[in-house]
Structure formats: C-alpha cells, structure tokens
Predict the 3D structure of the following.
Amino acid sequence: MSSRRQNRPVSPARTAENGRYAAARGWTGIVFIATSLDGFIARGNNTIEWLTEPDTTVTHPGDAALTAGAVAAIPGARRRAAGPGEAAGDYAGLMARVDHLVMGRNTYETVAGFPEWPYPETPVIVLSTSLPRDADARVTIAGSVAEATDLLSRARAGGVYIDGGQTVRAFLEEGLVDELTVSRAPILLGSGLPLFGGGAPEQRLRLDAAATGPNGLVHARYTVLRDDAGAGRGSGATLRK
Amino acid sequence: MSSRRQNRPVSPARTAENGRYAAARGWTGIVFIATSLDGFIARGNNTIEWLTEPDTTVTHPGDAALTAGAVAAIPGARRRAAGPGEAAGDYAGLMARVDHLVMGRNTYETVAGFPEWPYPETPVIVLSTSLPRDADARVTIAGSVAEATDLLSRARAGGVYIDGGQTVRAFLEEGLVDELTVSRAPILLGSGLPLFGGGAPEQRLRLDAAATGPNGLVHARYTVLRDDAGAGRGSGATLRK
C-alpha cells in the first residue's frame, strides 16, 4: 500500500479512495490544535502569546467536561481512539495514545526553539521539502505526505499526532485524520494564519466530547466520518469534479 | 450622539472611540450565529441545509450545559445581558431579551422566503444600500450602520439581535457587539461564506457559558471586552495604524 501511495501524485479527486486507504492504514491520525474564535492558529507574524500567555485578569467559567458519560462505546472506533472517559482537551490522555508525531517545518522550528525538546520519547516526522535529511538527529524529515505515511506504516505507528496548520490541512484532505480536537481561545484576532480554508473537500464530523478549559478555552473533539453515507452525500469526492 | 455618528465616516481607526460610544448607547448588541467547524455560515451558493437538516443517523453527545452555575453576577453586565441561568445556545432565552433585529439584505431575503414571517412582534432593520425604503412594510431599511444605530437609539432599543455575516462583521468592527454566541456544527465545509476574517481589529472576549446542543452543535457565549486593559493591550485601535 505504501509504495503505491508514493508512486501516485496527490490529488483531491482521490479523497474517497484515500478514505479507504485510511481505513486500512492501521494508525489513527489525531489533531489537537488551538485557534482563536475566528479560526487563526497564530498571528500573521507567527506569535501565539494570546494563547500561551492569556489575560489572567479576566474570569472565565472554570474547567468543566460537557459530555461526561455521553461518549460511550463508539461504533467503529479505531485502535488508539479516545476512550469513553477521556474529556475533550485532555492533553495528557491524548499523548498517552500517541506514539508518533508529524509536523510541518514551521511548527518544528517553533518547537526546536523551546528551551527543552518536548518529545524525547516520541519519534517525530517533519514534513519539509527544504530541510536537509540530516538537519536534526531528533527528527526524521519527510518530503511529502506520502513519504510520511509510508514511514508511519513501516514503523507500525498506532496513534499519530498531526500538528501545524498546513500539515493538518494536508492530512485532512488526504483522509488521514480520524480524530480532531479544536480548542477555541476567547479572542478574535481578525487576521493571521488560518487553520482551515482553501477549498478542502467537505467532511462530516461526529462530536464525541466537549469541555471548557482554563482561560476560557472551549474544547470540542470530533471523529471524522468516513462511512458510505458520508462518502455518498457530503464528502469532497462527490462534490469536487 | 447618534447625529454625530451619522456625520462621521466609518473608519477602523475609530474603534476604541466607538467602544466608548458603545458603552453610552443604551442598547446591547447581541450576535447568535451558527457556523461550520471551519467557520462558514453558508456554502458559497448560500445553502445551509447542512445546518437545518442535519444527518440524524449520526449519534452525537446529547444536550448538556457546560458551565451551569459558572455564570454568576457578571461585573459590568449591560442591560439586557444574559442572566446567570441562561445556557449558551438558549435561543428562546435570548429572544426574550431581544426587542429589535438588524440584518443584512442577504439574511433578509432568506427570512423573507420563509413560509411565515418569523418576527411579527419585533421591529426589523435591514441594512441595504439597494433596497427601496418602502420595499417591505414589515421592515425598516437603513443605508448604513450609522443610520441603523441612530434608528435604534431613537427607538430606545434594549436588546438588538444582529444577524448575517457582513452585518455581524460591520457591527463588531464598530464596537457595537456586546454578546456573541457562536454555535459550531459538526462539519467541515471547506469553502463558503465566512463569518469572520478580512482584517478586523483584535477583540478580547470573555467566555460566559458553553453547551452542547442537538445534532452535535457546540455553543459558546462570549462578552466582548472593552475595558481599558483590552483597549490598551489588544484592541484593534492600538494595533491598526
């Protein structure tokens, strides 16, 4: 499967087919990302202090799980899917299911600038066409989504954390995201780097859990639906000619 | 105040000043609007059946208030503000506080196409530069935001429901929105009519309540902050030169 992927160009028309690949691929693609209420992951100058250094003088409602008990046995849940007790926005619970990370170069450079490398135990794949293959011994460089998925399949990945706006969009369009948590920060940025947009195919979601977090965050966790009804009715494969 | 508004052109640089107008204006600007997870209020062809006719074969978590009891006395709450017991997404509770509606021409035309006019008891202002003043006896046409705010002040409006993407953006930019509920539907549309975007000034928000609704909706209700800290630190007035 992985060699077929590598030999075929990426095109939106293959989305439904990728959905079938996705069902067979064995690993779960997990997105966990924060945006402003208007959908930006960073300001235009890449700053996120509106997220990391929130205004503590404002009192928001406290931390509360929205749907405790509502997420029971999930039909067709994949390996490495969130369990019934995992609240939306539970980063520790999510990371316990993650054994590989995939991120774009921008996100990598942000993470590489942290005082300490935050993933000493977890293999990290960086999607980049410009970084040399030996740029950083802590990561593996992949030149394309197809190469990254090939690496993940060969590593028998289970739970894959997909990070960064461009990388999330690319994996979504290829049908490689199964679980999607979006955490909304209480601010309108007005402009910046958008998480979504750009004409991706439609994808129906199932809300699995929601919760408020500290500092006014609202977390919502979704499963990306890939059943026949979805493929026939609302997926990009039928809408994009 | 209202005649001054009318005589001055609308410009982003006046946002902080408008914030002061807003504090004095006497009515509360309320937004209650649904979007896809990726922030679109309608498909590019204006259809919203993804919202109004959701797929009932998918089981989402049930209706649950997130922050019951968390919204206590709100410091500086305006007249017509949501009470402590009002859950996010409570349309009936919200409409009980609304005595005027403002909408754009697109929204008006959608509403006018309904089998029954849904607001027989509530004065409706339609923002339009093209509709004739006597287009529809059920509504009042206003040619600008300034004219609409003048009409609202003269009518001694209390709670004003602001509807439609362009109208919401225009009122937000003018500092005329106090309360903002966004309800996220569990779908990625990929493209369509966006609620936000277009370089509006930054605005900090306070999360007041959140809840899940039927069909996988996640409601979050915010107060638009206009205190000195906000104006000095993050508002568009200081960031837009």
The CA atoms of residues 80 and 159 of chain B lie 6 Å apart.
